[in-house]
Sequence to fold (252 residues):
Amino acid sequence: MQFISPLFILGVIYICVASAYFIFNVRYINIVDICLSIKYILIKNYKLLIIFAVFLLPTIAYVDLPITKLCKYFYSPIIYNIFDNISRIGEGWFLGGILLTMGLACIIFNQKKLSEIFCSSFMALIFAGISNGLLKFIFNRERPSMGNNQWHFFYFFISKIKDPSNLLYAYNSMPSGHVITTVASLTVLYCYTSNSLIKTLLIGCMFLMICARIYTINHWLSDTIVSAVLGVIIGVAFAKNSPKKFNINSAY
Fold:
C-alpha cells in the first residue's frame, strides 16, 4: 500500500490556510478604488508620462538592440545562472508565495497591520500580473531571443506565422511580467516603510530583476522600463487604498 507523502499533506494544509487567509483579507481591497487611483496618478503626472513616452521611442530605436548585443557579447555561464535564478524568484507563484507566507507569519506573531500590508502587496502582484497579460496581448512584441528587430510590435497578427503557442512566449515581450509584478508588490512595501535601509534593499531587488531579464535576453531594455513604471503606478495605487492608510507623499 502506497502512503501519501507528509510533505504533500503539509502542502495541501498550507494551500488551504493560505487560501482562507487570502479570502479573508481580499474583501478589504476595492478594485474600483484601485482603478480610480491609477487614473488619478496618470492624470496628475501626465506631463511626466509625456516626457517618458518621448524618451521611450529613442530608447527603442537606439538603445534596445545595442544593449541586447552587449549582453550576448559579454555572456558568461556563471553570470547567466545567477541572473536566471534571480528571475526564478520573480516568478509570480514564488514571489506570491513568499508574500502570503509573510502575511501568515505576521498573523501568528500578532502583527495584524503588517499582515494586511503583505496581503495588499500580494494583491498588487495579482493585479499587475493580470494587467501584464492584457498588455502583452495588445503590444505583442517579439522577444530579443527570437530576433534582432526591436520594432516587431503586433508581430503575431501582422506576420504570416500564426502559431498560437507563440503568444505564450515568443511574441509577448512587452511588458515584462517578472518586472511589473516584482516592482508593484515591492512598491507597496516601499511606501509602507520609513527605514532607509529597507527602502534601499527593495529598490536593489527591483533593479536586480530588471538586469536579470535583460541579461538573460528575455526582454529588451524598453520592456523593463515600461514595466517598472507601470509597476510603480500599480504599487502606489494599492498603497493608497490599503486598509491601513500609508503616509504617502502627496506628490503621488
User: Anything to note?
Assistant: The first helix runs from residue 6 to 26. Residues 245-252 have pLDDT under 50 and may be disordered. Residues 25-240 form one domain. The chain has one domain: 25-240.
